[in-house]
Specification:
Blueprint lengths: L1 E8 L2 E12 L4 H7 L12 E4 L2 E4 L7 E3 L4 E3 L2 E3 L9 E3 L4 E4 L18 E4 L11 H7 L2 E6 L4 E6 H7 L10 E3 L2 E5 L4 H12 L4 E6 L18
Parallel strand pairs: 11-15
Antiparallel strand pairs: 1-2, 1-8, 2-5, 3-4, 6-7, 8-9, 9-10, 11-12, 12-14, 13-14
Length: 227
């Protein structure tokens, strides 16, 4: 069973939610599809009445149970809007956030995870904060650079700081600008352990082989240089 929560202020997750429906399915995708207004009104019955006429409601599904009262306008029942960006679906274990472009009406930067469906652990029906930067890190692919003798993974300093290990990386690694190149034996395990502790899984990686890499010529890692 999927429970659908729609934001009270369209697309804005900080201003509260209404529990609008349950959908008899285990699929988030199906719950989303069955709460769309395409050829009718998903939140109304098998027939629609408008301007004194009755029409078949092609968006009706007996899998959907509406949990909130429908409003009326000029004497006509107005159905709920389609489930969309900013809304949340609960599958009984996890809350899935349909990430909107912006967090609130005053935001100046769009979310990098906009358009994605992301599991969150802090859903509150009265509104919640969304840490977009953390979710970007959770879904990021890190590049492992390898030459004939050794390997390093490139990690933004911001990620090391967020994981609380920026001061635990040794001088065996390198630092160029805001990117650390973590040595595979000493420092890469430190990063992986911290990442697993935070996200419950290992980071995704992709290997790039270079016969001659410039990484060995970079300055040795020293955290105080970027504090």
């Amino acid at each position: 069973m999927i429970t659908v929560f729609q934001s009270k202020k369209f697309m804005y997750h900080k201003e509260g939610y209404t529990k609008v429906a349950t959908v008899d399915t285990d699929s988030i995708a199906e719950a989303f599809r069955l709460t769309q207004n395409i050829d009718g009104s998903w939140s109304q019955g098998p027939e629609l009445s408008y301007d004194g006429k009755t029409y078949a409601n092609k968006d009706f599904s007996d899998k959907v149970t509406v949990l909130t009262d429908l409003e009326t306008y000029n004497g006509e029942v107005v159905g709920l809007r389609s489930t969309s960006s900013g809304d949340v679906l609960f599958d009984g274990e996890k809350y899935w956030f349909l990430v909107p472009s912006y967090g609130d009406r005053n935001a100046t930067e769009s979310y990098k995870t906009r358009g994605q469906t992301v599991a969150i652990d802090n859903f509150d029906i009265d509104g919640f904060e969304y840490d977009d930067k953390e979710k970007v890190m959770e879904n990021k692919t890190y590049i492992f650079y390898e030459d004939p003798g050794h390997g390093w993974v490139a990690v933004p300093m911001a990620d090391l700081i967020a994981l609380g290990v920026a001061d635990k990386i040794t001088g065996c690694s390198y630092l160029l600008g805001n990117t650390a190149y973590l040595e595979e034996d000493c420092d890469l395990p430190t990063f992986v352990r911290a990442y697993k502790k935070k996200f419950g899984k290992a980071p995704k990686g992709e290997t790039v082989y270079q016969e001659h890499t410039s990484i060995r010529s970079y300055p040795n890692y020293e955290y105080k240089e970027v504090v």
